[in-house]
Design goal:
Layout (H helix, E strand, L loop, with lengths): L2 H13 L4 H29 L8 H60 L1 H27 L11 H6 L11 H4 L2 E2 L5 E3 L6 H8 L13 H46 L1
Antiparallel strand pairs: 1-2
Length: 262
Amino acid sequence: MSDKTIEVRIADALKNDTTAADLAALLVEVEQALATAEQDAAATSKAAMDVTITPDPDRARASIELATLVVGRLQTALSHLQSRYQEAEASEFLSRWQADRDRVEVRRDKAAAEFSKSRELIERLAAIFSNAEAVDRDVSRINISAPSGQRHLQQVELIARNLASFSSSDRSIAASTTLLGFDGKTAWPPRQQGLGVAMAQAMVTSAHDARYSDNWHGAADAQQQQLSREQQRLAAWHKEQERLQSARLRHEDLENRKRRTA
């Protein structure tokens, strides 16, 4: 392939909207042509300096200038091609990235729409767990007060999952689950009010605080009585929860022993 032909191809590639792949292929050809031209220029220069080979100085000078010109033009063309290749590659990458981004964005929006449905699912699941907990309290009450020989009731989740009892391999779903609502707050399990919170709430008064009135002694006594009642209420609640848990465990142990001996 002649230098003129490759130069024309270089000019066309730089002038037209050439792909990065085509530019890369042309770059390889230009690098090879440049290497050949540099070798030819070195040989031409050596021959031009030898009067036995090129006795005519004008011809010698012309041959050197032409060889140098070919090398220089190819070097310049190579530089332009490399810049154009980098631009084309960056442009094509950007186009591919934007297309990929748009595809992912469509999938993202679809997934977000699906995820938004979890709001209702979380609320429904929390309501189901809460209702089961309330029913289980009645189940425990029925079982604890059952006369001798009467059929006992199982908990809601055991019936739903067709289990005889909970174990390390069959853990309670409701007891092992924590649900966060879309507001970032815990939707399940229900938040139990601690004693410190109850005491703090008990200390909140109306805009007119009796502690700063002439009746501050009576207000202080009333506040102390309110705190005392709240402490008693919480203590009783914890005691009842412990009693129900112990009764539930005794009942489950009894049922397991009956099944083993049956």
